[in-house]
Amino acid sequence: MPAGTVDVSGLPLIGSGRTADVYALDDGWVLRRHREGWDTLREAAFMTYVHEHGFPAPRVRPSPGLIPGDLVLERLDGPTQAEAALGGALSPAGAGHELALLLRRLHAVAPLPSGHVLHLDLHPENVIRTSRGPVVIDWANAEEGAPALDWAMSALILAEIAVAPDRPEAAPVRAVLTALLTDPPPGLTGALDEARARRTANPTLGPAEKRRLGEAVELVRAESTGR
After folding, report:
1. Closest Cα partner for 89 from 134, 49, 47?
2. Global pTM exceeds 0.90
């Protein structure tokens, strides 16, 4: 095992996503390990920046010597927004309005030299509803830019599920999308082409998911027309 590598064989696995696994270190901290070993320094810098400016992102613990792909983060309590909505603790409309509020709060953070901080993957599975309020996780795609692109990415991710015939949650997710787009920022529809290009290039999307992108874009356009 390389020097600095944390042995996770004895650690509880508390979460897994498409690209990473999360292990409990103790009651206050977790280790998130990216399976491909992607460098997490940029992601950690964005999380630290927005957290220091009052946005609800997890605290990052500096941990010299970790291998690329490892990140030590604050352990969060509570369900994801998706779990809360599917379990009835939060309505689909409430989830959409909460996502919109989080996007507005993020884009109100003092901008960096190249633009506002964008999350670019903000959806119900990346929001933890903790005892202190919703906290946004998974900042791997974060960068600087125009807020409309962030809204377009969130809307398109939701629309991809809403148009999927094999997803039982398609109808409630469409309600989340409708609420998210109640008052979108200027430039949303113009940013959809770039959002679609980014989703098409995403290696975690399967062929069927990519084939639905055109229909998903049209749904977002329809939901945002006149708003």
Report:
1. 134
2. yes
Q: Which residues pair with 133 in a beta bridge?
A: 130
d(CA 188, CA 98): 18
Would you say 66 and 59 are in contact if contact means Cβ atoms under 8 Å apart?
A: no
pLDDT tens-digit map of 135-186: 999 999 999 999 999 999 999 999 999 999 889 999 999 999 999 999 999 9
- Distance between CA atoms of residues 227 and 30, nearest Å: 41
**What is the mean pLDDT of the segment spanning 96-101?**
98
Q: How far apart are CA 178 and CA 135, in angstroms?
A: 22
- Give the CA angle between residues 4, 46, 126 to the nearest 5°: 90
User: Cβ(135)–Cβ(143) under 8 Å?
Assistant: no
- C-alpha 18: how far from chain center: 12
Long-range contacts of 44-48 (CB under 8 A, 24+ apart): 44/71, 46/117, 46/139, 46/142, 46/143, 47/73, 47/139, 47/142
User: Left (φ > 0), alpha (ψ -120 to 50) or beta: where does 190 sit?
Assistant: alpha
Task: Detail the DSSP E strand segments found in the chain.
Answer: 13-16, 20-24, 29-34, 70-74, 116-118, 127-130, 133-136, 143-145
Count CB neighbours of 193 within 10 A: 11
